[in-house]
Design goal:
single chain, 497 residues, alpha/beta, TIM Barrel, 14% strand
Length: 497
């Protein structure tokens, strides 16, 4: 398809947006919710920019009805959200907290009433602090606790939620949380990071078993990974080996056991100087390889790597750096910034990485449907004097990446849906409130929501499943002829030159 032609997506394609509980809900101490590791971590001086926390976030816990109405006005047909484990099971053990489950039950009912399919993620990084105090993800018991939690949520919501995701980006949980220390819980132990990765894998398998036991046969199970599109800086043997090692640690450490029932031999060899992997017990890989109904792919930017030299550049792995290396067994790999456009996160804009990943998994797991469960960009979005928020750079980013999705579908990838990250600006983990990923602008002082130009652009796409060619002057405006119920419909603005 030419870039000057309209791209049509398949019937039934899911057009959604995504959020995570700690990033949007707030109400950190209400209705029995206990602290998560992010409540604790965000209070450690210097860990989160400006000392920000998710105590209030964007107050979704109290504003969810308005937020669902906004989703409907923007023509979304799906919404991916996460359940806060400490809100539903405050200690990580025992019975569910009724008030916590009631919140998610009401949210699901409201979504369905507006024709929006809920996609529920069980774990998006907010481990109950009591479980971390007991050892956290490096301990096997945490995986068992996750399975019990999954069963509680499935029994409460399984009659209405069809789409279930066990984990979101376990790489970040394991390697940023326990290796680099730049995410909660802030530990810096490479062996603990590898142990955490295995027990997250095991939690996925045990959680999937628990879900299957409690859910109707029609339910669909997935996991959302953030695999790296890793490029070698050159074709030298050394740089290609660096690419292989990072691919093993970023992607195959999860897809190996989840899709194929075994950890990659080269990963075991690369990390032999750190651990003998005795924390993997007989039968674990078979549990982890639980049949999936879809594989979620989160993608933002590719990685460019080389073998390190004495004059290696500063490590920039796309996750904020830090003093401690999140790549066990790959200390002598250097990360490089490719040329070209960048987002406010200083991440390169490269849609080809998304295409490559979709085609890779289409080949690696034929017959397994794929979904883009996160994709988006942060830019410095501020209202103009009239209160409108124009974000042509985000529209260009989304257009390029959705073109890549459409191209992958045309080349045989079975992609069933796309979830924009994020529905609205929110707490961006260690960056606090300094980075804005939302299609909807949030004034953090007043909690006012203002759809950006990209929200109107995405609403048109969700309504029509037609990706129009990039034509200046068409980016920011909703279609006044068929979007009269979209906020701001009919207000046409030109794309800045």
């Amino acid at each position: 398809m030419s870039e000057h032609e309209t791209a049509s997506f398949p019937d039934g394609f899911l057009w959604g947006a995504a959020t995570a509980a700690y990033q949007v809900e707030g109400a950190a101490r209400e209705d029995g919710r206990s602290p998560s590791i992010w409540d604790t971590f965000s209070r450690v001086p210097g860990k989160v920019r400006d000392g920000d926390t998710g105590d209030i976030a964007v107050d979704h816990y109290h504003r969810w009805r308005d937020d669902v109405r906004l989703m409907a006005e923007l023509d979304l047909n799906a919404y991916r959200f996460s359940v806060s484990w400490p809100r539903v099971q405050p200690t990580g053990r025992g019975p569910a907290a009724r008030r916590g489950l009631d919140f998610y039950s009401a949210l699901v009912d409201e979504l369905l009433a507006h024709g929006i399919r809920p996609m529920l993620t069980l774990y998006h990084w907010d481990l109950p602090q009591e479980l971390e105090t007991a050892g956290g993800w490096p301990e096997r018991e945490t995986a068992r606790r996750f399975a019990d939690y999954a069963h509680l949520v499935a029994r409460a919501l399984g009659d209405r939620v069809e789409l279930w995701t066990t984990l979101n980006e376990p790489w970040c949980s394991a390697f940023l949380g326990y290796g680099a220390g730049v995410h909660a819980p802030g530990r810096t132990d490479q062996v603990a990071a590898l142990r955490a990765a295995h027990h997250l894998n095991l939690a996925h398998g045990l959680g999937a078993e628990a879900l299957r036991a409690a859910l109707p046969a029609s339910a669909r199970l997935s996991v959302a990974l953030n695999p790296s599109a890793v490029r070698a800086r050159s074709r030298s043997a050394e740089d290609l080996d660096a690419q292989r090692r990072v691919d093993a640690l970023s992607t195959r450490i999860f897809t190996g056991p989840m899709l194929h029932g075994a950890y990659p031999d080269d990963l075991i060899a690369d990390t032999a100087g750190l651990t003998d992997w005795s924390f993997v017990r007989d039968g674990d890989p078979a549990v982890i390889k639980h049949p999936l109904d879809a594989l979620g792919v989160n993608y933002y930017t590719p990685s460019v790597v080389s073998a390190a030299t004495d004059n290696r550049p500063p490590r920039d792995d796309g996750h904020g750096g830090g003093e401690h290396n999140p790549w066990p067994g790959a200390d002598d790999v250097a990360f490089h910034q490719p040329p070209g456009a960048r987002t406010a996160m200083d991440w390169s804009v490269d849609p080809s990485g998304l295409y490559d990943l979709l085609m890779r998994f289409s080949r690696e797991a034929p017959g397994l449907p794929l979904m883009v469960t996160e994709n988006g960009a942060a830019f410095d979005d501020e209202p103009d004097p009239e209160g409108a928020v124009h974000d042509p750079d985000r529209i260009a980013y989304l257009h390029g990446h959705l073109n890549a999705v459409h191209r992958a579908i045309g080349d045989g990838a079975d992609v069933r849906g796309y979830f924009l990250w994020s529905l609205m600006d929110n707490f961006e983990w260690s960056y606090g409130y300094s980075k804005r990923f939302g299609a909807v602008h949030v004034d953090y002082a007043t909690q006012a929501r203002t759809p950006k130009s990209s929200a109107y652009w995405y609403a048109r796409l969700a309504r029509t499943s037609q990706l129009l060619p990039e034509v200046p002057g068409m980016y920011d405006a909703p279609d006044a002829n068929d979007a009269t119920d979209v906020p701001g419909a009919g207000e046409v603005s030109e794309k800045p030159a």
